[in-house]
Amino acid sequence: MERSVNADPFQRSDSSDRWTWWRNWLGFWFLGLCNNFGYVVMLSAAHDILRKQESGNSTLTASATLAVDFQVRNNSNASRYDCNPVSTAAVLLADILPSLSVKLAAPFVIHAVPYGFRVMICVVMTATSFLLVAFSSAVWMSILGVIFASFSSGLGELSFLALSTFFSRDVLGGWGSGTGGAGVAGALLYSALTQAGLSPRITLLTMLVVPFSMILSYFCLLVFPTRLSHWKPSMNDCLVSCSEERERLIEGADEGREEEQEKPEAVTPEPLSLTEKRDIIRSLLKFMFPLGLVYFAEYFINQGLMELLYFPNFFLSHAEQYRWYQTLYQLGVLVSRSSLCCVKIRKLWLLALLQILNAVLLLFAVGYQFLPSAWLVFVIILYEGLLGGAAYVNTFFFISKEAKDRQREFSMSTASVGDSFGIALAALVAFPVHRYFCSL
After folding, report:
1. Assigned superfamily of 16-53+81-226+235-242+272-439
2. pTM of the entire predicted model
3. How far apart, in whole angstroms, are the C-alpha atoms of residue 72 and residue 59?
4. What stretches of 197-235 show up as alpha helix (H) in DSSP?
5. Closest by alpha carbon to 321, among 82, 105, 103, 140?
6. Rg of the Cα trace of the chain?
7. Are residues 163 and 6 in contact, defined by beta-carbon separation less than 8 angstroms?
8. 130-183 tens-digit pLDDT
9. Closest by alpha carbon to 185, among 207, 170, 168?
10. Both ends of the chain: CA-CA distance in Å?
11. What DSSP state is assigned to residue 268?
């Protein structure tokens, strides 16, 4: 089996090296958890955010209620779908467009910002988002808080995926599992705490511990290569130099080893040029397109259809049904993003096709209401999460495996735009779909 230079830089025969491996794996698990936690909570709270503003913003100024006034002529209780005046896709747009903007622009300039500073920016942004949404008195304040969470999530994702190239490739399994864990923890905690009687405001305030946990995970848990600095910009030559050193350790070739060690350091390569970056992006399209399709289909379901899959005679209220849809989706994501050590799926287009079929099925289910119970929807939503999580973790695993050493850091950060683009497109499509069904 082919073995990449960053496949296993730490020899696990020694107990200290095994401990280092586990610290790094757990460190990326917690970073994934903390990075995606706020994003998930905002989507889980979307229904409550809009309900709160719908009932409490009747005296706001026109500028503060622009989003509500756009559709206020639709009485939310007049529709058989029990719609909010504003689709939860509005929250999704605010939750993804800043992230998409960061992912489109940052890979070309982010190398000038040290990883330590990026982590601190993410922490401040996430904490601010929780405070803004918790104490919001208008839709625009809630949306602004969601925007802060989105910016933090996007910056964190591209930064930590790039950072993973300095460690064993196994940390991608920790990262993927952690992001899946964020989905379950965020959706489940929000659903459980609010259903237990806590207000959405108190629930959000208790979650302020999460962004500060990111500081501990990054600065205290990870064991960094000596060449990588928290406060100095990351350069390609550092990555290549580290990769070359790891390759010598992994191959363990006896012949000429002394001669190789006596040789001076390899000439420092030039940073990637714009032409090289363009060529790398082209080579990544085979990964980014299917990933984007998977996420377009699943977030069209999550924010365009989930709110409309309402069963009035079920023992859960509409808001509770929506929360548990989100929770089961995130449970599926957790399971599949944690499966990298057991199964690897190279046929990403197959996952995209299956997810699109899911979206078509649920779209017809909303229109014709032929599904007999929410229990069946629960199963479909869980399956949807399994497909989405598998597409994400396998995409970045194979990018890491196939990218050249010098290109790996840029490739990992750039490819993350694929899922964000699909999510943004899903939100734009969800708006007219929501308005059409709510007018029935």
Report:
1. MFS general substrate transporter like domains (1.20.1250.20)
2. 0.76
3. 13
4. 200-206, 209-216
5. 82
6. 23
7. no
8. 898 888 877 788 788 888 888 998 999 999 998 998 888 889 889 989 988 887
9. 207
10. 57
11. P
